[in-house]
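My main concern about presentation is that the manuscript never shows what a single data entry looks like. For the editor and my fellow referees, an illustration may be useful. For illustration, here is how one protein appears when written out as sequence plus structure tokens:

***
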Amino acid sequence: MKSSVTAVAASRLGVTRRACVLGLSSGSLIAPLAWAAAAHPGVQLASDWQPGRSPQGFLVSEKFDGVRALWDGKVLRFRSGRPISAPTAFLRTLPAQALDGELWLERGQFDRLSGLVRQAQPDEAAWARLFYLVFDAPTLPGDFQSRYRALEAILQAAAVPHLRRIEQYPLEDAPALQRRLDAVIEAGGEGLMLHRSDASWQAGRTQALFKFKPEPDEEAQVLGYLPGQGRHAGLTGALLVRNAAGIRFALGSGLSDAMRREPPAIGSWVTYRHRGHTPGGVPRFATFLRDRPAE
């Protein structure tokens, strides 16, 4: 259970459970955790797209609510670098070429998918129903458009139904991009991704890859908990978190009652949506979206 994991994490930090709930340590705010990178150094990460910007020079695709998976030709890994316990039969279908993509079931099934791909002993029957949606081949030479074209031949040669290339297409202007976003959201999708056509592959946060969603989202690390009040008395009122910019804030909106009873473990990462930032960099109207189980 997450609550027991939380207690263990707090114990390792030398912080009592009560101090964690109050967000305090030795009478002050809980000491900052050592900042950990949100992703494996060899992963390309998207920046936020600004509404109204022209998409010319970019290829656009749907942003699928899957689990990021990187194939190096031998091992399938989470973006943290940790191996994914996939069935041998699934791995044997993948080509020798390094791939970057998303493991995916269908729209709105992220929680189910997340539990499936994180099982120590993979469920072969369940894995047979998921897809590996590929959007890049990091080790191929050339710009993104060249790599994307080369992917077609690679995946066609593999001839595996669950291995698919994510469709990429150009759009002429900002209104067309907004219409496409609206259509994806209306159909139950999460948003759009934009790859700069002429960009070489780059690790880390880059201006060659963007995500475009109705509300931008970011990740933050859980530092502690704040106590609930009113109907939430005795439960977690909010998570005390810190984002990649080093900004600490309380994240309570969007937490379910179940999450308040068993909040994400200290040191884990959560995803939140927001509506921009204050002059001091604090996310406006931050809303919890999902936790990111340990990878």
Notes: The chain is about 20% helix and 30% strand. The longest strand covers residues 217-227. Confidence is low (pLDDT under 50) at residues 1-41. Residues 105 and 112 are 8 Å apart (CA to CA).
